[in-house]
Structure formats: C-alpha cells, structure tokens
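Dear Dr. H.,

I hope your travels went smoothly. While you were away I took the liberty of generating a structure for the chain from your last submission, since the lab meeting agenda had it listed for discussion. I wanted you to have the full record in hand beforehand rather than looking at slides cold. The sequence, exactly as received, is reproduced here:
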Amino acid sequence: MKRSLTLLLALAGLAFAQGARLELETKLADLGELISGQSSRFVFNFTNTGDEDLVIRKVLATCDCAAALLSEPRIAPGQNGQIEVELSSKGRMGVVHSNIRVVSNDDTQMDGGPNLTVLQVQAKIISLVRVMPQAAYFPSVDHGGEDQRRIVLTPEQSDALEVLKLECSAAFISASWEAVESNGKTCAALTIKVGPDAPIGPMLEKVVVTTNIEAQPTLEVPVLGNVRGDILYGPLPLMLLQVERGDEPMQAISIQRDRGGELKILAVEIDVPWLHPRALELVDGKIWEVSLRIGDDAPSGHFLALATISIDDPVQPSLRIPISGQIRPRFIVEPAGLWVPLDASQALPSIRVRLPADFIEGFQVDAPSWLQVEQQVHADGYSLALTAQGTPEAGQLVLSSRLPGETRLVLPIVLEGSTPGPEVEGAD
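The corresponding predicted structure, in token form, is as follows:
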C-alpha cells in the first residue's frame, strides 16, 4: 500500500511539472508617430511562471531599423526579465514595423515555429519637411562634365524654412540654396551640382541639410547616379547560365569607345583558373570582344567570378566585369539523397548514378558499416541496390569518380526526415 501511494505521488508530480514558461505583459508595442530621424525605445517585460529556469537562446530583430537587448539569458522560476527594443526612423517614412524573434526553452511557445515567440514593434514615421523630388538623380554624367538638379524643401507645420548649413559627402558635390515662396510658405530651393572631377562609376552620395525646424533639425538628400567614361563595355554582369565544361558560350564582353577612336586590350585576368578568356579585335581596333571558354576542370553548380581587363586608356586603365553562371553537373545521382526508415526491415530505395561514358570506370562507393551496397553497371553509369544489415544510423554515403571538378559526391543519410540535396566536392 505504501509503495502504491509513493507511485501515485510521483505520477502526480509529473502531471504538475511545467518546465520553463515565458509569460509576457504584451507582444505588441505601438510607438505612435515618430519624426524622421528620431528613435524610440520600448521594454517588453516578462516573467518565468514555470518551475524550471527559463533560458533565452536567441533574440533577433528582423529589420535593420530595430535593435533588441536582453536583460539576462537565464531567468529563475518566478523572476522577471526584460527585452529592450530600439526602433530607428532614419531613412524611413510611413508605417514601419519589425518582428523580434525570441527563441527559448519554453516548449509552449509556437509563434510560427517550436520554442519561438514573436514580438512586434511598429511606428508611423512622419517628416516635418517635404522634399521634392526625394533625391538628386543623375542617370548619366559624362566624365569631366558638369550637371545639376533642383530640390525644393517645404515646411509641413510651419510657415517658413531656412537652411542653416549644407554638408556634401564628396568633394565633387556642391550645394547652394535660395528662399522661394510657394502656397504662402517660405521654402528652400537647393541646387545640387556634380563637378568635372567626379570619378567614373556609380555615384552614391548625399547632402546633409541643417534647417531651422527644431523638431527635425537635419535631413539627408541622396545624390545618386552614374558618371560615364569614354569606354563603353558590358553586359554587367556577364551571365553564363546552364553551360557545360568545354563550352564557348555565345555571351561575350563587348568594349568600345563612346565617341569612336581606337583602343587596345593589353591583358585579361579572371580570378578563377578554369575560365579561359580570348580577346578578339572586331573593327580595326575600335570594337573588341572578350569571349570565354569553360575549362574541363570547372566545378559544377553556381559560380561568381570577376574579369579585370587592362586597356590603353589613361582615364580608365582597367575595367572590372562580374561574371555569374551555372555549370551543369555531369555526376548526377537520383534521388538526390537517402531517406531511411527507422524500421530496418523496410526496403531501402535504390540509387541511380549517371556518369559520362569515359568516366564510368573507377567509380567507388564508401558506405557506413550497417549499409550493404550492390553495384550494377550500365552504359551511362550505375544502379545501387541498398540493404540494411543492422540498425540504421544517420551519416553519409560518399560516391567517388574520376571526373575533374566532381571527384566526390556526398549524400547525407537522414532517418525519418526529408531528403536534402547532395554535396558535390572538387578534386582534393
């Protein structure tokens, strides 16, 4: 009788065991209106109402406009904690919101995932100064030339706006202003100029304006555009999609002077060894083309590369062209992974391996000890029959070939899970 009572008390204790529990006062913080450029903070208070320590494993804001700070990562039962969130309105307008993702050991939290709590912070960003247009945009400025744009600043809640200071982020940008009247208000008209010393390439600058509006004393006017040199080249980037080793794709880099005249390619360098360039003079030294050949040792899959082309131009002595593409694999496995049931008596799926005819010989399989593999050769590869000879375990099946750039293909072995893709490795 005494043992039965002890067992019942133990079972009752298990029934009332909770674990860690994260209880929040609120999950939503509405910060109201913020003037552009301001920041605001909110503190999410919470309590561990469980009977075990609450462990906060991760606190992450989903927007770069917000930052979150946790008071303590471990909260004892009955104790309180805080998550302080700061929302910045810089560079934003209208309604802005950010989620704060909190991962803990509270298994009752399921806001879109296990052990996940999602907090929300939102605000409406307003400006006391209307900027029209919102940026000084120069789509194409000739190198050595000049251009200018006009921007009008209008006060929203006062009758007059005065500019106290203008600061440009680059020496080749200059700005001035004058007072203008519009709809009964005194506005500021900015003139933003790009000078002849602007460097060739994209322009990502700004003018910081200080005004007499005390609640919003500064604002930024972006200065965006492109300074064009005498050399025209492209495309940018060069895209080589679904190519094979040994291919010479039709896509190529074209180079010429904007206003005619001769030029000469001195050298072409690419930062990957298996892309082989060839410079071809198309029109009497005026138009050039750089084509590429894919090497036999190129790895399969997506790739990024950079071509640097040296030319005989004192202003633009080198051109940098990004290259993006995808090389078709020749070492193909179907299915692209091995899903294994926990019950070893169930049949395992067979695997089909495809290889070029010249590389079928020399294929090898490295399997874990519990997995028996029988190979059958075909004209285009192999079929692999799999049999469990013990208790299945998670691991990997390694397939090896003599293919340059595709010498090893690793298939993860997953128990009662989804099938991941294979990992192809190059030569060791």
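Two observations you may find useful: The CA atoms of residues 187 and 220 lie 16 Å apart. The longest strand covers residues 94-104.

With kind regards,
E. W.
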